[in-house]
Amino acid sequence: MRSGAELDVTVEWVDARERLPADGMPVAAAATGRYPTHPDDEESGRDFWLVMPMRFAARYVDEDGVEHRDCFIDSDRVIRLPYGRHCAEPVTHWAALPTLPGTSVHSVVGDGVRSALRNVLG
Fold first, then answer.
1. Other residues' Cβ atoms within 10 Å of the Cβ of residue 73
2. Prediction pTM value
């Protein structure tokens, strides 16, 4: 790893019952639930609490046209609600994701990607 890219991060977890992220904010979300029961899977039927990257939306319309308010959406477009609201896998806590190494942003798309990578990777 090239020196110069500061990769140390302090995580501040926020209780989703007390405060929600800004609309569109990418977050690390701690979700809890229970794995479905599958006879061939040793994790099946067990409770879980795990961290996943998600995006917060103040308003989100899913593929079926259903509108959701104040929800967390993962990369598979699974919608999770803050703990305390009816949801199979509610989000208990969230934390702001760190910015990309050597930048002050969470994402770079298009023409800027190669130059951003060159700046960090050399």
1. 17
2. 0.79
Segments making up each domain of the chain, as ranges:
14-121
Q: Which residue, chain included where needed, has tokens 């002050």?
A: 104
Residue 36 CA to residue 83 CA, distance in Å, equals 19
Task: Give the chain's end-to-end CA distance (angstroms, integer).
Answer: 10
Sheet containing 47-61: order of strands? 14-15, 91-96, 26-34, 47-61, 67-73, 79-80
Q: Please report, for residues 41, 47, 54, 91, the alpha-carbon distance to residue 37 in angstroms, rounded to integers and kept in the order given.
A: 8, 11, 25, 21
Q: Where are the alpha helices (DSSP H) in 1-122?
A: 112-121
- Cα distances (angstroms) measured from residue 85 to each of 36, 70, 76, 81: 20, 10, 21, 6
Digit-coded pLDDT (tens) for 31-59: 999 888 777 777 778 899 999 999 999 99
> How many CB atoms within 10 Å of residue 25?
17
Distance between CA atoms of 53 and 112, rounded to whole angstroms? 23
The strand pairing partners of 93, in sequence order, are 15, 30
